[in-house]
Amino acid sequence: MRAQDRTPVVKKIKPGISTLALTPDKASDYLQPLLSFAAAHIPKKKHRETPLYILCTAGMRLLPESQQAAILEDLVTDVPAEFDFLFSSSHAEVISGKQEGVYAWIGINFVLGRFDHAEEGEEAVVEVTTGGQNQEPISRRRTVGIIDMGGASLQIAYEVPSAISFSSPEQEEAAKSLLAEFNLGCDVEHTQHVYRVYVTTFLGFGGNMARQRYEDDLINNTLTKNRLTGEQMGMGEATPYLDPCLPRGLSETVQRDGHRVFLRGQGDWPRCQGAVRPFLGQPNGTVSLRGVYQAPINFHNSEFYGFSEFYYCTEDVLRIGGQYDSFKYSKAATDYCATEWTTLKQRLDSKLYSTQADLSRLKYQCFKSAWMYEVLHSGFRFPQDYPSLKTAQLVYDKEVQWTLGAMLFKTRFMPLRDRQQEAFRQSHSSWLRVSFVYNHYLFFACILVVLLAILLYILRLRRIHQRELRQAEALDLLWAEEGEVLIA
């Protein structure tokens, strides 16, 4: 949907609704600008039949259940009093990270048309085994996976087309909470649109939270080492801690719990990679992030999109967003980190970076680029020569948000059918509409003819009746005249 100036009809407000934890009675007021915006773009006569869903994510998930319930209660009570949308208590909820990941996955694949049926001879297809017994594998269009790294959390979601074998009952149990199977078709019995998706969220693995964890560890280790050795590393500007993850020559100060450590950027990207790797949380030799079960990925027949930090890290200052090339990315990141801080600021002032780049991006680009790289290749184990990852902010000039996927899922009995069948149905539907309109008018024409016939018949009866009255009057007059003659 686009406005008159052809811009997408989208509205966002900040901060999140979770900031009203202590004043839940203001929740509906907070949403008022969003709902008014929606109401202005939907014909008023359609409001009563337009479903409204209010879905809350990570910020609300962090609140106690009592505070969540108070906010939702205010929305359920006050929103219907001001807006006529189709809305009930079941339409307002706090969704899980798993749901959010599934919705994001649905949104991107819908925009890319990956739910359409595969055409003859198409290469990007997969063989899918569904949950039904004695069913042959289905060949259908290959969907894309997504990796989304925000400031606080990291999410990954992708289809698992084949049946999974588990190494132990414990692993199978752990996988159940990370696999979602759902039907996006119109018929719940039809398996053509059954999708099995692996989705998980890693809280604390976003770019900003990862840097915070890194700094916490840096301060603790520095203070501990100083106590053991008697050194004063990082305790003053003259003896700064050399941080490999800050650009060369950048001076920075970090504080935690009353302790302060002075940092000086070393700009050594390979060393920074080694420094951030322990924060992936791969204990006891496990090869997955935080030891969490990861469903297998067919790297020879798959495609992924990287959003948020994956795009910012490749595009904002390195200017190589889009098709991801790990070797090209490594070289660009290495060169950036090794560049003097004064030079980087001059380039920012000269507008050589994207419009989104600012001083914060310049400061932490070196760290975040290393973190992104390690998450992708050491955490998720993507091969360095993996050719099918694209970093993006827009897809087909559309902002792909989890909210789009949520709407599609909530109305999932939508027609995800073969294009030819759909085209036939559309033309058939069009013919039906024309036929209905034609019959509609024909019916009224018949009614009109009948009414005219009745009216003419009534008029004719009136004329006959009036003629008979005149004849009767004439006859009475005649009898009267004759009587007068007889009396005379």
Automatic annotation (TrEMBL):
Cellular component aspect of the GO annotation: Golgi apparatus; membrane
InterPro entries with a match to the protein in the record: GDA1_CD39_NTPase
Pfam family, one: GDA1_CD39
Active-site residues, record numbering mapped to chain: 100
Gene3D superfamilies recorded: 3.30.420.40, Exopolyphosphatase. Domain 2
Keywords (A to Z) from UniProt: ATP-binding, Hydrolase, Membrane, Nucleotide-binding, Transmembrane, Transmembrane helix
Transmembrane segments: 441-459
GO molecular function annotation: ATP binding; GDP phosphatase activity; ribonucleoside triphosphate phosphatase activity; UDP phosphatase activity
Any single GO BP term: CTP metabolic process
Residue numbers binding ATP: 151-155
The keyword Nucleotide-binding belongs to this UniProt entry's keyword annotation: yes
The UniProt record lists the keyword Magnesium: no
Family named by the database record: Belongs to the GDA1/CD39 NTPase family.
Name of the protein: Ectonucleoside triphosphate diphosphohydrolase 7
Species the sequence originates in: Albula goreensis
Phylogenetic placement of the source organism: Eukaryota, Metazoa, Chordata, Craniata, Vertebrata
